[in-house]
């Protein structure tokens, strides 16, 4: 029969495509497994606050997709973009080069001038490596600096935050990046009860020049609950910390990492303490400055390779290390590292690698942001590309093994018998109003999946069991069935 309305079929075709796009964006509760829906209901989180995609690594067709192309705040899952861009643009063997210079002659172990330590943006220049750096200088015969020790952090050009990300400025995750980041600008207080003395010893690491803290606190009774509040710590004077409370004996030994209250002087106090502790002498002071043009190189100390660094970033969700790497993506081009320049470079890389995917909204590359955005669909594309690329092993090894290590070790606490334990390699994310997870899951069928799930809702962190259920659903792929909606979609195809 002749078509009397030739414009009808193209219209219907376009309308159907529009409807399919709207459906993918809006999502339906029927797209989600029943156990995940139940966990969402218990947390009072609607399915409209959730974005999910579960896709076999060797397939372009998702097994499960719910609002997968909606841009959401992924929290620390954003680190997957930063670390994979780092591997792609710098390579797994990339190292940061920390250098030490002198601007005067050295005679009989005495430097008649200044010693300059030039930072490279190294994300993990911790106390042990700083001590090793000083030992190498001693091995060169240098024992006395008549001038100053100058700390040069000009490899990055950043504006320090005037306010903490949240209302807990002394949490280590709030530490700002630094061209010469030393020991994460943090102190670790370790509390150890001693039944014989009835006191709790306090050990503080690393040493800082001019810093004072009590060596003991009173031992308290009762259960080990909010022991940090019970200590009644006063960090208002950075150089002199006090504890007005007690520490419960039932807690046993516990560490408490705290960001130093005056981060702008942390590096100088640490370097001074380590230099003098080695038996060396210093005629001047430790201060921040820039490398003089006439200074000569004494020592070069490479960092750990990037493959090792991203394992810390992803397994333990280290925010300042992620930001150090993000800034390095622009400083590696020859100019000082800046957030804006790094955003431009990562977006250029993204357009080349994932031209069919929406671009992420980038801020500092760590996920410690209210503005960063990506979608489950785009992150799935990244996971699939990483799994078959030249850096697949380094990337997967950087992820936390579910129920075993890193941030996803807590899954075992929530469900000791979960089938996901040891069968998933994950990056988790958590902010106020955000809970997320992304990575690889090994299904019982032998199929391996890329899984991304993001919740943006005031009750997001109460809904983490729903994310656990989605991971279980992917692992138990020989037992579960697709949702009715997914089955209907496949029957129409």
Can you offer a commentary on this structure?
The chain has 493 residues and is an alpha+beta fold. The protein is 32% helix and 21% strand. The chain has 14 helices and 22 strands. A 6-stranded antiparallel sheet has the order 2-1-22-21-20-19, with helices on both faces. α2 runs antiparallel to α13 and α3 runs parallel beside α8. The longest helix has 19 residues. The protein is globular and about 75 Å long. The N terminus and C terminus are likely disordered.
Count of discrete alpha- or pi-helical segments spanning 4 or more residues: 14
Low-pLDDT stretches are 1-24, 487-493
Q: What fraction, in percent, of the residue positions are helical? A: 25-40%
Strand arrangement, largest sheet?
2-1-22-21-20-19
Shape assignment: globular
Major beta-sheet overview: 6 strands, antiparallel
Q: pLDDT average, as an integer?
A: 92
Q: Give the structural class.
A: alpha+beta
Radius of gyration: 26 Å
What is the first-to-last residue Cα distance? 26 Å
- State the total count of DSSP E strands: 22
Task: Give the amount of beta strand, in percent.
Answer: 15-25%
């Amino acid at each position: 029969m002749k078509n009397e309305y030739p414009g009808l079929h193209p219209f219907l075709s376009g309308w159907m495509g529009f409807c399919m796009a709207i459906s993918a964006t809006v999502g339906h509760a029927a797209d989600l497994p029943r156990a995940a829906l139940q966990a969402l209901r218990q947390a009072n989180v609607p399915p409209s606050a959730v974005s999910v995609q579960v896709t076999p690594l060797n397939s372009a067709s998702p097994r499960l997709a719910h609002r997968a192309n909606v841009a959401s705040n992924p929290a620390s899952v954003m680190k997957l973009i930063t670390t994979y861009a780092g591997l792609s643009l710098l390579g797994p063997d990339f190292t940061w080069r920390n250098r030490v210079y002198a601007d005067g002659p050295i005679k009989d172990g005495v430097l008649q001038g200044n010693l300059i330590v030039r930072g490279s943006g190294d994300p993990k220049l911790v106390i042990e490596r700083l001590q090793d750096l000083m030992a190498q200088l001693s091995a060169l015969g240098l024992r006395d600096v008549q001038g100053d020790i100058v700390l040069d952090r000009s490899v990055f050009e950043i504006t320090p935050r005037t306010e903490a990300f949240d209302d807990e400025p002394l949490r280590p995750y709030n530490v700002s990046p630094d061209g010469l980041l030393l020991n994460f600008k943090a102190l670790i207080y370790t509390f150890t009860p001693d039944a014989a003395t009835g006191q709790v010893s306090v050990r503080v690491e690393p040493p800082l020049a001019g810093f004072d803290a009590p060596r003991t606190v009173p031992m308290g009774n009762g259960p080990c609950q909010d022991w940090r509040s019970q200590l009644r710590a006063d960090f208002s004077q950075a150089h002199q910390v006090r504890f007005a409370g007690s520490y419960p004996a039932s807690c046993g030994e516990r560490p408490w990492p705290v960001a130093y209250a005056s981060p702008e002087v942390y590096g100088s106090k640490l370097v001074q303490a380590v230099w003098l502790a080695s038996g060396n002498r210093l005629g001047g002071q430790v201060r921040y400055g820039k490398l003089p043009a006439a200074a000569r190189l004494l020592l070069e100390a490479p960092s750990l390779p990037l493959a090792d660094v991203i394992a810390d970033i992803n397994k333990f969700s280290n925010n300042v290390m992620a930001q150090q790497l993000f800034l390095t993506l622009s400083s590696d081009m020859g100019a000082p590292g800046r957030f804006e320049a790094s955003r431009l470079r990562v977006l250029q890389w993204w357009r080349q690698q994932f031209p069919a995917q929406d671009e992420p909204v980038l801020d500092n590359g760590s996920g410690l942001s209210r503005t960063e955005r990506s979608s489950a669909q785009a992150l799935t594309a990244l996971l699939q590309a990483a799994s078959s690329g030249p850096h697949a092993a380094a990337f997967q090894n950087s992820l936390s093994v579910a129920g075993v290590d890193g941030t996803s070790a807590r899954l075992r606490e929530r469900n000791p018998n979960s089938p996901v334990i040891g069968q998933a390699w994950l990056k988790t994310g958590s902010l106020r109003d955000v809970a997320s997870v992304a990575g690889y899951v090994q299904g019982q069928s032998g199929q391996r999946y890329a899984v991304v799930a993001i919740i943006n809702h005031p009750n997001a962190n109460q809904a983490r069991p729903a994310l656990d259920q989605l991971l279980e659903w992917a692992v138990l792929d020989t037992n579960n069935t697709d949702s009715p909606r997914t089955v209907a979609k496949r029957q129409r195809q």
